[in-house]
Specification:
Blueprint lengths: L18 H7 L5 E2 L2 H9 L4 E6 L8 H15 L3 E6 L20 H16 L11 E3 L2 H4 L4 H8 L5 H6 L1 H7 L7 H4 L1 H16 L1 E7 L3 H15 L4 E5 L12 E2 L2 E2 L9 H9 L3 H11 L4 H13 L5 H15 L1 H14 L10 H7 L5 E5 L5 H7 L6 H9 L3 E3 L2 E2 L17 E6 L3 E8 L1
Parallel strand pairs: 2-3, 2-5, 3-4, 5-6, 9-13
Antiparallel strand pairs: 1-6, 7-8, 10-11, 10-12, 12-13
Helix pairs in contact: 10-11, 12-15, 13-14, 13-15, 15-16, 18-19
Length: 436
């Protein structure tokens, strides 16, 4: 996928004493190993750290974006990232709270590894003294026999400790139970950390706080096997102020892949952020400085109707994920759909995304009279109501007012040869697709 992620423009806020202080202010530290040690480590010479992403879907989502931005902030502070896409852990999947995952085929997982690696690459710099590196845990698990795995790794894990991990404990008390396959996931993740510590001197793993059991399985394994002390950082799970789950829209995850969640839908998701959540989102998901965010916080408190915080948030995060050009297109599309711009300049994909939620109708090419169009689209209940709308000056086709009730729309006015955007009054919109 083409991408215009301007890494050069990203900076940490120099107003903080160190990166740890900035992470804390942004609300990105929920749980960690020894905090004083970790702060000292991150304020010193460059260290190598990693975060893992499992290919259990063909795209990363907003929860993963939190981790990618933590990785990027640490890289901007001079540290060296390892992006791990789990070719082996993705074949199993970490235990979910409720039920076993569906196992995907090896070919599917391998294909998804490629997709996720491409996505991770967009958020980190692979150049310079602290260039990021990509790793795949299939490289060191595939050659290992089951006997070697049990002898060399399994013997260091205590079943009692494993049973107490949250993800395992919740599943044990459910009707589903937990298979040995998913139970073993934490051993595999622990082994990843051990391998990366040995190969790259990696001394920090980051992840969501719901992964804490898996993060600490690695720190414990390294302590037991090699006698070394390493670190883990768990970020908070992002939730909305009203208690609903963040990152879900109409029951779907907000994916980072433009084909799975269009830039338009992505932008709208952020634009619809509640006032109570917008400042926290600006801290976590943008590289805006503390001073800039505090200005926006003031605006949200004093002029909530202006929605400056939401518009800045939507612009920044959409630019980060889809590039500035795609974001500008989305903003132009929003304006054009509501009558403040030229619909004809929108490409077909952007137009389709911008009108996806509107009522729509299909008609044949013979029904392009304005009255028929208003009725077919549902904007008027009857032909007489449609005539009244036209007579009162409330009918628009592609943002152009239509005042003649006998007007017939020409084929040259169809957007991309087949679409019309109809509007009644200021806010009632519908689309019509014309069968050629």
């Amino acid at each position: 996928m083409s991408h215009v992620n301007n890494l050069e423009s990203q900076h940490n806020d120099p107003g903080f004493a160190n990166i740890w202080q900035e992470l804390k202010w942004r609300g990105l530290v929920h749980v960690s190993t020894d905090e004083a040690e970790l702060e000292k480590l991150l304020a010193g010479d460059p260290i190598t750290y990693y975060c893992g992403f499992d290919p259990t879907a063909p795209s990363l989502h907003l929860g993963n974006l939190v981790q990618l931005l933590v990785m990027r902030r640490l890289q901007l502070a001079g540290h060296k990232p390892l992006g791990l896409v789990g070719g082996s852990t993705g074949l199993i999947g970490d235990p979910r709270p409720t039920a076993e995952r569906t196992l995907n085929t090896k070919d599917t997982v391998a294909e998804w590894v490629g997709y996720l690696q491409a996505q991770v690459r967009r958020f980190l710099s692979f150049e310079g003294d602290n260039a990021a590196r990509m790793v795949n845990n299939l490289d060191w698990t595939a050659p290992l026999s089951a006997i070697d795995f049990l002898r060399e790794i399994g013997k260091h894990f205590r079943v009692g400790t494993m049973l107490r991990k949250d993800a395992v404990a919740s599943r044990l008390s459910s009707e589903e139970g937990i298979s040995y396959t998913e139970f073993s996931y934490q051993i595999l993740q622990g082994m990843d950390y051990l391998q990366l510590n040995r190969d790259y001197g990696c001394v920090l793993q980051t992840g969501g706080s719901d992964q804490w059991g898996n993060l600490t399985s690695g720190t414990e394994l390294i302590r037991k096997v090699d006698g070394k002390s390493v670190h883990a950082l768990g970020t908070p799970l992002i939730t909305n102020a009203d208690g609903t789950k963040f990152g879900k829209s109409e029951g779907n995850a907000i994916w980072l892949d433009a084909h799975m969640c269009s830039p338009y839908a992505f932008y709208q998701f952020w634009l619809n952020t509640a006032d109570a959540d917008v400042v926290d989102r600006l801290k976590v998901f943008t590289f805006l400085s503390r001073a800039e965010i505090e200005e926006l916080e003031k605006s949200v408190a004093e002029r909530p109707f202006a929605r400056e915080g939401q518009r800045k948030l939507a612009y920044e995060v959409t630019s980060l994920v889809h590039g500035v050009e795609a974001t500008e297109k989305v903003i132009a599309a929003s304006a054009a759909v509501f009558g403040n711009g030229d619909l004809s300049v929108l490409d077909e994909a952007t137009l389709a995304a911008a009108t996806a939620e509107l009522p729509s109708a299909k008609i044949d090419a013979g029904g392009l009279g304005i009255i028929d169009l208003l009725v077919a689209s549902g904007l008027a209940d009857s032909k007489s109501a449609a005539r009244r709308t036209v007579g009162e000056g409330g009918a628009y086709v592609n943002n152009a007012k239509v005042t003649d009730p006998d007007a017939v729309i020409g084929h040259d006015e169809l957007l991309h040869g087949r679409y019309l955007l109809l509007r009644r009054g200021k806010k009632n919109l519908a689309t019509v697709e014309v069968d050629a």
